[in-house]
Amino acid sequence: MAKAAKTTFRCSECGWTTLKWVGRCGECQAWGTVEEAGAPTSTVIAPARVTTAARPITEISVESAHAVPTGLDELDRVLGGGVVPGGVLLFAGEPGVGKSTLLLEVAALCADSAPVLYVTGEESTGQVRLRADRLGALSPHLYLASETSVASLVSHVDAVSPSLLIVDSVQTMSSPDVAGVPGGVSQVREVAGALIRLAKERDIPTVLVGHVTKDGSIAGPRLLEHLVDVVLQFEGDRHSQLRMLRAVKNRYGPTDEIGCFELTDSGILGLPDPSGLFLTRRNEPVPGTCVTVTLEGRRPLIAEVQALVASSNLPQPRRANSGLDSARVNMVMAVLERRARVRIANSDVYASTVGGVRLGEPSVDLALALAVAGSVRDEALPRGLVAIGEVGLAGDVRAVTGVQRRLVEAQRLGFTRAIVPRNSEEPIEGLEVVGVDDVGAALRSAFTAPQPS
Question: Which is one GO molecular function term here (predicted)?
Answer without folding.
Answer: damaged DNA binding
